[in-house]
Amino acid sequence: MSVRTARLAVTAGLVGLSSMALIACTSNTPEAEKTTTTGTQQVAAKGNDEPGKKVKIGFSAPAADHGWMGAITKATQAEAKKYPDVDLQVAEGTNDVNLQISQVETFINQKVDAIVLLPFDGAALTAVATKAMQAGITVINVDREFDSSFAARTTVLGDNHGMGVSAGTYICEQLKGKKDAVVAEIAGIDSLPLTQERSKGFKEALADCGLKVNNRVAAEFTVESGEKAATNLLQAAPKIDAIWNHDDDQGVGVMAAIKNSGRKEFFVVGGAGSANVMRDIKSGNSLLKATVIYPSTQGADGIRLARLLVQKKALGDLVEVEVPRVVQLYAPVVTKDNVDQYLPTAFES
Known about the structure:
Blueprint: H1 3-24, E1 34-35, E2 41-42, E3 55-60, H2 67-81, E4 86-90, H3 97-109, E5 114-117, H4 122-134, E6 138-142, E7 154-157, H5 160-175, E8 183-187, H6 193-208, E9 213-218, H7 223-236, E10 242-245, H8 248-261, E11 267-272, H9 275-283, E12 288-293, H10 298-310, E13 326-328, E14 333-334, H11 339-342
Parallel strand pairs: 3-4, 3-5, 5-6, 6-7, 7-13, 8-9, 8-10, 10-11, 11-12
Antiparallel strand pairs: 1-2, 12-14
Helix pairs in contact: 2-10, 3-4, 5-6, 7-8
């Protein structure tokens, strides 16, 4: 096992513990008091799903102009409906930074208890999020980070770097030391830090098994851009063994371009984890062999955490009595072997 592989294994274990903690925080069955080996009685966080103080939460996110973002908002609303003590106020999705700032200002004026905010631009929303925190409102930052730690109580993140590592590790395993293998990458928007992190992790993982990215193009997270980028890639690379496409929404266009090319000598790994890609993986009749999850549950997790924070509760499986400052979700690889585990929470492209 290489140093990097060992490090990833430890990281995966830690993230797994965090995931278990999130699940435990909403257990419907309160745990009984337990006696430790020192004789001290310790009461676990109990009944976190039981109704408590009414919590008014404002939610704002970018426009649902692609499947993943639409799933974020849908899952957030569905999660809030599970709790009779949650009053969710949903602002209309927008890619206009100034409008999103005004939405947060409205939540402040309404004196909500918490704001779950997926900013269109984290840097641009930092000041108004800080203002909300200074007004005594609990802010949960989702997916795109603010520039200041004072702008949010807790941040819920996917793992962009981990996505690249997971995709690269899977490709290494499938190519089994084939040192002359040609690996291609279809990235998202290159100017975004999230794309840069995904590419960095991918490059590092490939290097660990002696491979590299031989051909790379960038798209824009849309079907049209995915088809155009994939067409250009296929024309430039007469031989390919594996392709990693960063985003399953743009992947609809990527797969259309591959179908039009008639080429079948490679396999494809997706990114984000859409339901249509998972169904293709499950069928076994597609060049798509895997996808790497970028959870569309982050807003829903934000609702749970906001509720716990306002009600002064904690995560049941942690000794720490406060909700963590940062919760980073894992980026697992979905294959035919485990697809049924992930398909129920997948989004539609």
